[in-house]
Amino acid sequence: MAGSYGGRISLEPPTARLIAEQSCLNNPKSPHLKNVAAHPLNHAVEVLAPTDRLPTGLAAASPAADLYYAADQLPLLKLLDSSFRQLVGEGSVCGVTVGAAVDGGCVAAVLPTGQLVLSLDRPTYHSLGLQGKPSHLDPKQRFLVTVDLSDPGLSPGSKRLTRLEWCFTDRLDLCFDFLFVYTPDGGSGGVECPVLAALGAAKVVDPEEVQYAQMQTPRFETAVAAELMDSEFFDLSEWLGVVGCRLEIDGAPDGYHSTLACPEPSAAAPLAVSRWRGMIGSARVAALLAAAQKSVQSGEAPWVALQVWGFEDAPVSWGSREHGHAEGGENHYTYVVGPDGRYLLFTMLDPADPCP
Known about the structure:
The chain is built from 8 helices and 15 strands. 21% of the residues lie in helices and 33% in strands.
């Protein structure tokens, strides 16, 4: 909701950009793996299939046993420890702050590339004393600072490391609530990590399973995208949102209560839905996407949808692109995988965010 004290309050709902794309997982030029890898900061993942239970391949690829770590009021200085910087070089470490707003406070993230990204308000930035750049979302009041934790120049006793340590302590003792996940090279999920355990408490990804005996679901007789007109892409995305909100559409829309309807052609069918919450890295999402394709190819499911939600107050979303919360803070995406490896990709963006 936007407005000002003593003035008019806007009751318009937040706006967001929805981008629809289509391609084939079997196409060597398909960017699906690149897109997934570029979005490592995820707080929830969901798969759904019009079946009476989750296909076995998807169940096996689930993050149900994955670990992540929660560190409360972690001094930023801890990220400069040699043990943490060594960990960054050994595998994929992701971290993001929680409990602070990206449009009104200071937030941070650690990316798999080894970059520490700080999004700071103006007073904090000037107090910190490190060179950064103005935010493209609010160039006068917000600044981005990036520190490469994998830089070989950050050796013990080096001038570069000494200056960073001084800025993070003497100039400004910054502390954040962080979530971390560590995935070793070649792995697909968060695993036990002594370095992260020294920073915070280990947690297991939180699962949620829902089984609908009958739900009006879309049917795709051929390729997923081939049967949809341009206007129907939005209808399918909206239906997936309804399922994500745990609502049901049993048939035609009710003109008084709701105008929502399942995209046609559709049929009543069972629907299996599983969601996992926590800190989930992109390698796990890639494993689920591969399992979705195999489930469709094997005939276990006619199609599978994979929905991924990013942290709304993360300083970046896709890659190192700055993320804001001008409206709803959206940085979510959904793959709908159908026959022959064809897929639809829906990407939801905050209006101020650049396209991935």
